[in-house]
Write a structure and sequence with these properties.
- The protein is α/β, with parallel strands linked by helices.
- The chain has helices at 42-47, 93-96, 127-130, 144-152, 156-166, 182-193, 206-215, 225-235, 251-260, 299-311, 330-338; strands at 2-8, 11-16, 28-36, 55-56, 61-68, 80-83, 86-87, 107-108, 121-124, 132-133, 174-178, 198-202, 219-221, 241-246, 261-269, 291-294, 323-325, 345-347.
- It is globular and about 60 Å long.
- The strands form 4 sheets. Strands 3, 5, 6, 9, 10, 17 and 18 form a 7-stranded mixed β-sheet that branches.
- The chain contains 11 helices and 18 strands.
- The longest helix is centred in the last third of the chain and has 13 residues, at 299-311.
- It starts with a strand and ends with a strand.
- Helix 6 runs parallel beside helix 7 (206-215) and helix 8 (225-235) runs parallel beside helix 9.
- Helices cover 28% and strands 24% of the residues.
Length: 351
């Protein structure tokens, strides 16, 4: 089969490798019908040290179950499924509390132990907890918009939703979303669905912020740094926003976030942080009685409800995909996203 590997910053290759096999009785083998490139994949694309050993890439998929281990009872061969971007047992105390990305028995795709999902076939550990069936959909005949919408549930849209959920966005509130990537746009859509009255999108790419307006953004702030903070404060009567949804992960985005959060508000971060130390003192959080929330989105916790919404016609998240490529063209997809020529690239292994 073909699979994607990264050998260092800017060095992405598609290689022929042996198809994965069952290793544990809790595994499933899934034929991937759609996968994609994530904005978080661009972090190693910029900074990964060169290596002779490629790292498997990808953590999002929809596909069809081909084989299951002897302990797998939830899915069977032929089932159409979504894989959340992290695997989990979905039964332990942490999972039952709704934080499957912290499952003590779970883990992450995109490493040599498990493999990546930017491929033609994947091994899914803990399949009873890590796969979600999509009833009534045949991926070979389904509408492309529906398939794209379902793929966003693997990570990008539900990560945006998690940002809004953890910020406890409520009707009538002001919300600022920092970042106009696919996750930020998902956060705009989620904030609208949760009833926010004012949604300020901080981003400077017009094609993306225009889509953000379609998703529900009431204002767009292209300025950054102190100038951007001043603009948001002006739009909020000098108070700032009740909730700030940070979907970037770099320090300037965090600094903008504590600059625009109103006293007593909350900053919810879902952009993978590229730092460990960050201001929390009087001039950032403490002086405002502001709170921090967010983290890796437990999309498994939200997925069944989101699938139902998808069947009912909630296909707006599908529009974050603005380019579809075959598996051989994955390196070109990375280049396009890095150059901001594409918002989010979907991979169709059948092309």
């Amino acid at each position: 089969m073909k699979a994607t590997f990264m050998y260092g910053a800017g060095d992405v290759r598609v290689e022929d490798v042996a198809a994965p096999e069952l290793k544990e009785p809790t595994d499933a083998i899934v034929r991937i019908t759609r996968t994609c490139i994530c904005g978080s994949d661009l972090h190693p694309y910029h900074s990964m040290p060169a290596s002779d050993a490629g790292n498997p890439m990808g953590h999002e998929l929809i596909g069809v179950v081909e084989e299951v281990g002897s302990d797998v009872t939830y899915v069977k061969p032929g089932d159409f499924v979504i894989a959340p971007f992290a695997f989990s047992d979905n039964t332990c105390e942490i999972c039952r509390a709704g934080f499957q990305t912290a499952c003590p028995h779970g883990g992450w795709y995109g490493n040599t132990a498990v493999g990546g999902l930017q491929a033609e076939v994947a091994r899914i550990p803990l399949a009873n907890g890590s796969l979600v069936k999509v009833p009534g959909v045949n991926p070979d005949t389904a509408d492309e918009a529906l398939l794209a919408s379902l793929l966003t549930l693997s990570d990008v849209y539900l990560t945006g939703y998690h940002a809004a959920f953890m910020a406890q966005v409520a009707p009538g509130q002001s919300v600022t979303v920092v970042g106009d990537g696919a996750v930020g746009l998902g956060a705009v859509l989620a904030a609208k669905q949760l009833g926010a009255e004012q949604i300020i999108l901080m981003g400077r790419h017009a094609s993306r912020t225009d889509l953000g307006r379609e998703f529900g953004a009431t204002d767009v702030v292209a300025e950054r740094g102190d100038e951007g903070v001043a603009k948001v404060l002006e739009l909020t009567g000098g108070f700032g926003s009740h909730a700030v949804l940070e979907a970037v992960g770099h320090m300037p985005a965090y600094e903008q976030s504590y600059g625009v959060v109103r006293p007593g508000g909350v900053i919810s971060r879902v952009g993978v942080p590229q730092y460990e130390s960050a201001p929390v003192g009087f001039g950032s959080l403490f002086g405002k009685n502001a709170r921090l929330a967010g983290g890796p989105a437990p999309v498994r916790a939200y997925m069944e409800d989101a699938i139902t919404q998808g069947h009912d016609g909630l296909n707006e998240p599908a529009t974050v995909f603005d380019r579809t490529l075959g598996i051989d063209d994955v390196p070109a997809g990375y280049q396009a996203m890095d150059a901001r020529e594409a918002l989010k690239v979907m991979i169709d292994p059948s092309l």
